[in-house]
Amino acid sequence: MKKGEENQFIEFLDGLFSPELNAETKIKLIEEHIDITLDQEMERMVEEMCNLSAGVMNKGIEKGIEKGIEKGIEINRQEVVFNMISKNFTDEMIMSITNISKEQLSLIKEKFFSSEKEK
Questions:
Q1: Cα dihedral 29, 35, 41, 47 in deg (nearest 10)
Q2: Which of 104, 103, 16 has the alpha carbon at shortest distance from 53?
Q3: How far is CA 78 from CA 50, 84, 88, in A?
Q4: How far is CA 117 from CA 80, 82, 87, 113, in A?
Q5: What's the pLDDT tens digit per position in 74-103?
Q6: Nearest-5° angle of CA 34, CA 38, CA 39?
Q7: Structure confidence at residue 69 (pLDDT)
Q8: CA–CA dist 119, 115 (Å, integer)
Q9: For residue 113, how many other CB atoms are within 10 A of its CB?
Q10: Cα–chain-centroid distance for residue 117?
C-alpha cells in the first residue's frame, strides 16, 4: 500500500468508526471507498452497528455521570464531617448523624488532621 493509499484507508476507517457519523453517511462512505453497493441486509447491519456504538457511548456517559455524582456526595460528606470535627462533635455523634462507619470516620479524620497540619 502506498503512502497516499494508507492515508485514504486511515481516513476511511476513522469515518467508519466515528460516533459522529450516522448510518447513512457510513453506508455512502463504504460504497465510495470500497466501490461496492450494499444491499438492504448489509445496510441494516451498518445501522445496527451505529446503534450499538451509540448505546455503548451512552452507557459510558451514564456511568461517568454516576461516578461524578457519587464522588460529589462523598466530597460533601467529608466536608460535613470536617465541619463537625472542627465544632468538637464526638465520634459517636458524627457517625450517628452522617451514617458512616468508625473506619470511614478514621480515614476522614486522618485527612482532616493532615490538612490542618499543612495550614
A1: -10
A2: 16
A3: 42, 10, 15
A4: 19, 14, 17, 6
A5: 999 999 999 999 999 999 999 999 999 999
A6: 160
A7: 95
A8: 7
A9: 11
A10: 35
pLDDT digits (tens, 9 = 90+) for 28-77: 888 888 877 888 898 888 888 777 777 777 888 999 999 999 999 999 99
Helix (H, G, I), strand (E, B) or coil at 53: helix
Which residue, among 51, 27, 54, has the nearest Cα to 41 in the 3D structure?
Answer: 27
DSSP secondary-structure letter at 65?
Answer: H
Residue 79 grid coordinates: 466536608
Distance of CA 115 to the CA centre of its chain: 30
Q: Take residue 16 and report the three cell numbers written for it.
A: 467508519
- CB contact at 8 A, 98 and 80: yes
Of 29, 5, 1, 31, the C-alpha closest to 15 is 29
Q: What is the pTM of this model?
A: 0.53
pLDDT, tens digit, 9 for 90 and up, residues 16-32 = 778 788 888 888 888 88
